[in-house]
Specification:
With about 230 residues, the protein is α/β, with parallel strands linked by helices. It has two domains: about 150 residues, 3-Layer(aba) Sandwich (Rossmann fold); about 60 residues, DNA polymerase, domain 1 (Orthogonal Bundle), CATH 1.10.150. It is about 45% helix and about 15% strand. Strand 8, helix 10 and strand 9 form a beta-alpha-beta unit. It is elongated and about 55 Å long.
Amino acid sequence: MIKAIIFDLDGTLIDGGEDLHAAVNLLFAEEGIAPITLRAVESFIGDGIGALVARSYLHAGVAPEDLAERIEQFKRIYAAQGYPLTRLFPGVFAALRDLASRYQLGLCTNKDQAHARAILQKLGIAEFFSMLVGGDTLSVRKPDPRVLVSAAHGCGAGIDEIIYVGDGSVDAALSKATGAMFFLYAEGYRAEPLDALAPAASFSDYAQLPALVRLAEEGNLPGRVNQE
């Protein structure tokens, strides 16, 4: 029985790369560092803000004297922007509305909780989620299995009673570590071939997701299904 659907955020529900890119380059501008590309920044998304900032500096060939302080400054810049370029992927709102009428919905992201909550509110989807586990909610972050277990329990479900929906290798590793059923959104920031992530199902259109969830609940999901 499926009781809850747990989602990743960046690259799964939202396309937030442009705001993260803008914040990185504003941070760099304070130090006279040349801007880096959107594509580079998008490739650093998935392991939380600290990792994104550290990888951005490494990509720029700069070793900051106080990386921890620069990460905090990035967070201030990112929040002050107000996420003007962050948007839902097509079909997300309708899919969440449909699923929330039948299941508990949760969010499990490496984005800091305050940023994640603010984005959910801005995009009008906060009401659909009964649980949010951010990158700073616990002492660990994805792909540590405890974060998904916590999100599932917050939705009143065991790990065998959820579907986890993500877009990349961190999400695949998290699902594997917990044994949770993994659905992959194929239009996110994934760098790896789809086959390497071994999802139970993949989809490119959110209109397909409710039907895939119903198939899974009925036990009729045939092996690996790619809905692309």
